Structure formats: structure tokens, C-alpha cells
């Protein structure tokens, strides 16, 4: 009896140590598996954007960083809408009409009327800013094909221009006369004088 008890007492501590060792190994294995899985997920899955990030379609019109309501003259290059943009929705929500005087600017407020002059030949036309763009370096305005034809830039596709705002919508709802306002007024007065002279 004493031998059996002695044998049992000698065996129990070994079994307990073995059980503790197995539990420790299991915990270590689970920890290692968790670390490996975490590393895999962090590299395999793309980072999720914050809730406030813009997740709209890539084709959405980028919002301008700064609107220039000063009415000052600017110079740069003009291009015109290609066929791929005909009838596409512009920033003001209307479809692009190639026969209209619609134009695009990155910084002028929508609704701005401006006189665009081709600096190569002096031709000028009044346009209305209804869209955003062009997003090409040094270009400050995109014109409709009809306006581009009148300005004589369709052949080259791009031309140096001067843009003089005539009427610039302000944030408070008012409209500010721009650098081209006096020029447009002179043009209207001149046209009225010619019409009056022709009636005599």
C-alpha cells in the first residue's frame, strides 16, 4: 500500500508539469498565430479611408481650392472641349452644348461672364463660366468649339489668351463688375451708335 501511494505521489507531479507545459505551449502557439495573422491582414488588405474622406467617383468634378472673385485680368492658355465631352454634365448641372458660349475655369465662380481674347489675332468673345477645368498646366480656360472657332484657335487647339471678367458673382449674391466690364460697355455703346447712324 505504501509502495502504491509512493508511486502515485511520484507520478502526479510529473503529470501536472506535463499538463502545464502543454497549456503553455498552446498559449504560445495561439499568440504566434495571432501575430502572424495580424501581420498578414495589415499587408494584404488596403487601408480604409476615414469616414470624412471623399469617396465619390473619380470622374467627379474637383472642387476649386480658391475662387477668385476679384474680377482681375488673367493671361494663360485656352483650349476647347473635345467631342468626348459633348452633352456631358457640367459643374452647373447642365449638359455641355458645343454651340453655346459655355466655358470652364478652375478659379472663376460659376456664372461669371468674361471676355476671352486670342492674343495671336485679337479676336474676342464673351463666355459664361459654367464648368471646372482645364486641369492642364498653364491653361486657364476651356472653351466651347463654337467659341474656339470664333477666336481662331481650333486649328492649333491651344492659344495664348487674355481673360477679362465682365460680371463676377459674389458670395453674398451680388454681382461685381470685372476688368472687362468697361470694355463690354464700350462695345455695346459703339454698336448702338453704329445702329443709330445706319438708321439716318
In short:
By secondary structure, the protein is α+β, with helices and mostly antiparallel strands. Helix content is 34%, strand content 22%.
What helical percentage do the residues reach?
25-40%
How big a fraction of the residues is strand? 15-25%
Distance N terminus to C terminus? 144 Å
Helix-strand string = HEEEEEHEEH
CATH superfamily grouping of the largest domain: RlpA-like domain
Helix tally?
A: 3
Number of domains: 2
Beta strands, count: 7
Main pleated sheet: 6 strands, mixed, barrel
CATH class of the largest domain: Mainly Beta
CATH topology of the largest domain: Barwin-like endoglucanases
Uncertain segments: 1-13, 41-60, 189-200
Overall geometry comes to elongated
What is the architecture of the largest domain at the second tier of CATH? Beta Barrel
Briefly note the structural class of the backbone.
alpha+beta
**Biggest sheet, spatial arrangement of strands:** 1-5-2-4-3-6
Write up what this structure looks like.
The protein is an alpha+beta fold. It folds into two domains: 1-38; 74-182, RlpA-like domain (Barwin-like endoglucanases). The chain is 34% helix and 22% strand. The chain contains three helices and seven strands. It has helices at 2-44, 145-151, 181-199; strands at residues 74-80, 102-104, 113-118, 124-131, 139-143, 159-169, 175-177. It has a six-stranded mixed β-barrel. Strand 3 (113-118) and strand 4 form a beta hairpin. The longest helix has 43 residues, at 2-44. It starts with a helix and ends with a helix. The relative contact order is 0.14.
